[in-house]
Amino acid sequence: ERSLAVLTSGGDAPGMNAAVRAVVRRALDCGFKVYGIYNGYEGLVSGGEAIRPLGWNDVGGILPRGGTFLGTARSERFRTLEGRRQAVRHLVTLGVDALVVIGGDGSLMGAHVLAEEWPSHVEALEKEGLLGELGKVPPSLDVVGLPGSIDNDLYGTDMSIGVDTALNHIVRAIDDLTSTAASHQRTFVVETMGRHCGYLALMGALGGGASWVLVPEEELDLRWHHKMIRAIEKARAIGRPHQMVVVAEGARHPDGLPIRTEELKKILADRLGIDVRVTVLGHVQRGGAPSAFDRILATRLGVAAVDALVQAGDRPLRHMIGLQKNRIHMTLLMEVVEKSQAVGQQIDQGAYREAQRLRGESFVR
Ligand code: F6P
Questions:
Q1: Which tens digits make up the pLDDT trace of 247-284?
Q2: Ramachandran bin of 15, using left for φ above 0, alpha for ψ from -120 to 50, beta for the remaining angles
Q3: How far apart are CA 182 and CA 223, in angstroms?
Q4: Nearest atom of ligand 1 to the alpha carbon of 194
Q5: Which domain of life is it from (predicted)?
Q6: How far is the CA of 216 from the centre of ligand 1 (A)?
Q7: How many angstroms does the Cα of residue 90 sit away from the middle of ligand 1?
């Protein structure tokens, strides 16, 4: 009988519960013994109560819930060799030879490293006599990653788990802000999350009908605020006195310094003589029940993760399961991590042009 463990790691993302549920139930169906690891890699390093068997009913009712019932963490201890050795000790002791990690690029990197180091940790633990009288020690660890992050900054999948829900929060917030903005004839600067990736800001601006969007992927020239001011002036001239400016938290000046919302507010207020307010959306973007899309995505990916483990047989598995053009797609974890750095640069240029063009400027002659 094979044993599988599952954990969620890094920032939580709506839909992680749906993914855990799918992994657990599919694995039980395929004859695995299943363990849940609480609080991400931190729990894996701690062992004990943090690693518990999961049955069919333990994941009942979690599908529609936000966050992750397993808990999550950004673990410092797992970054050390000693921490990872403890992690291996706990997995070996339970006979676990398959690990499913749901998280962002740092978390997926951790899974890759653990699988690579596995034999050397096992050898060291055996030498130190720390494995006791274990019957069979798994010679290798299969690891499967699932993309879980609202940022949509991972190579190898069109969408990560949680992105759609976050986007819905953003669009709803822009809608809500628009009614108060319109009443007061105000302009709002709305800051979205996304770390170094502009996906949420860009798609939020498209979905919410914003007048201007600033994303980290665009290298701004020194006159960038003139362009923004001009666009807003023109939009005001055609009879829309309230505007939305969306700025990604990772957006930068040409010299690399972050663009601050308060600074944008001041530029707009001073140059246009208008009333400006700032709303930083913050962690509401990560909260609440997952959208239908995220539940379905997470469920499909979770099932596919276990199927990949079953089908791999003796071949080592170090892959992320993603969705590309609505089909399950496997990418080596190493490739995901390496190429994710560049994903930001690959922002949808078409969507970007549309977002900037739909501000209405072309109607003003
Ligand atoms: O990666 C998800 C994310 O929400 C980013 O968009 C954001 O920069 C970061 O996590 C915030 O981290 P924390 O929840 O630790 O404040």
A1: 999 999 999 999 999 999 999 999 999 999 999 999 99
A2: left
A3: 28
A4: 6
A5: Bacteria
A6: 16
A7: 29
Residue nearest to atom 11 of ligand 1 (CA): 11
pLDDT, one tens digit per residue, over 71-115 is 999 999 999 999 999 999 999 999 999 999 999 999 999 999 999
Tell me how far CA of residue 305 lies from CA of 63, 138, 183, 197, 319, in angstroms. Answer: 17, 19, 50, 26, 9
Residue 244 DSSP one-character state: E
Does the beta carbon of 12 lie inside 6 Å of ligand 1? Answer: no
CA-to-CA distance for 116 and 85, rounded, in angstroms? 12
Mean pLDDT across the chain, nearest whole number? 93
Residue 176's Cα: distance from chain center in Å?
25
Does ligand 1 come within 6 angstroms of the Cβ of 194?
Answer: yes
Q: 104 CB less than 6 Å from ligand 1?
A: yes
Q: 68 near 302, Cβ under 8 Å? A: no
Q: 248 CB less than 6 Å from ligand 1?
A: no
- The answer, yes or no, to whether any atom of ligand 1 lies below 6 A from the CB of 150, is yes
Tokens of 72: 């999550």
Reported ipTM: the value is: 0.98
Q: 158, 147, 251: which is closest to 196 by C-alpha?
A: 251
Q: Which residue has the higher pLDDT, 300 or 209?
A: 300
Catalytic residue among 151, 153, 164, 294: 151
pLDDT confidence tier of residue 296, bands split at 50, 70 and 90: very high
- The reply to whether 151 belongs to the active site is yes
* Per-residue confidence (pLDDT) for residue 360, from 0 to 100: 44
